[in-house]
Amino acid sequence: MPKSGGIDWEAARARLATLAAATQEQETLSPGEAQAILDARARALAHAPSPDLEREAPREVVRFRTAGQAYALESRFVLEVVRAPEVVPLPGAPPALRGLTLLHGEVLPVVELAPLFGRAPADASGPLLVVGAGRPELGLRTEEVQEVALLRGRELLPPPTTVDPALVSAAEPDGTLLLEGEALLGDSRLVFDLSDEGTV
């Protein structure tokens, strides 16, 4: 038994004997066998990550709430948050279109997610999430913008069967729905022709 802080010589000798045996075994391999082992190791190291591992990569999302439902949208689709938007309602507009607002001199449709999920629009209004793929395309009406967070695949559940799987890719354990940004921006219910609209 070694003294406190000393070297355990018996364990060290055992490890050296194991290394010596492994080295001797390696020396008995033919050059072709050794090359085959090295090639196999190289292929293993260069192997691309599996889709399962890729899905585990954290995603940065913006969490928000509207009409009593919590949602999360990848932050790459959120261009800015307008805290006190001025929205002009449009009489006779479809349920999802709440009105128009002026953003940096451009007319932007303000939409409500609730009708897309069979919910009634909320009366209360809060910050506007300006979303788009590189440019402002829609203003999402919210009651509150909660936080920016990281989501990991292992923390997510399959989406409820009651929602459109094209719009919702997953759900969090607390019921937050993870929106598919590209599907949301391409949804025909949220595409409006504003060519006749001048200023707001």
Automatic annotation (TrEMBL):
SMART domains for the chain: CheW (SM00260)
UniProt domain CheW-like: residue ranges: 58-200
A GO-annotated cellular component: cytosol
GO annotation, biological process: chemotaxis; signal transduction
PROSITE patterns xrefs: CHEW
Pfam families for the chain: CheW (PF01584)
Lineage top rank: taxon: Bacteria
Residues annotated as transmembrane: none
InterPro entries: CheW, CheW-like_dom_sf, CheW-lke_dom
The name this protein goes by in its record: Chemotaxis protein CheW
Annotated source species: Pyxidicoccus fallax
Species classification: Bacteria, Pseudomonadati, Myxococcota, Myxococcia, Myxococcales
